[in-house]
Write a structure and sequence with these properties.
By secondary structure, the chain is an all-alpha fold. It has three helices and no strands. Helix content is 73%, strand content 0%.
Length: 82
């Protein structure tokens, strides 16, 4: 059985890459801003696990923060719930 943290990790990754593609195709992200988001993702992927043994767990929240920033950039503001 797959644990709940694994599900959230996969969900954060899928949302990040989906929003990135939607932003590029929809015109909300140009090459520079898309490369900034990918660079920030790479920094988190490479650097966070190498700081110390316990910081590797912060990669999923790092991607979630990038997801929030991508939602603001791609949707031009917060998502309307009503």
């Amino acid at each position: 059985m797959v644990g709940l943290p694994f599900v959230f990790t996969v969900l954060a990754q899928v949302v990040f890459w989906t929003l990135l593609v939607i932003g590029i195709v929809g015109g909300s992200l140009n090459r520079v801003s898309a490369s900034v988001f990918v660079s920030l993702w790479l920094i988190g992927y490479i650097v966070l696990p190498r700081i110390t043994w316990w910081t590797g767990a912060f990669f999923t929240p790092w991607v979630a923060i990038l997801d929030i920033a991508l939602v603001f950039v791609v949707d031009h503001g917060d998502v309307k719930l009503t």
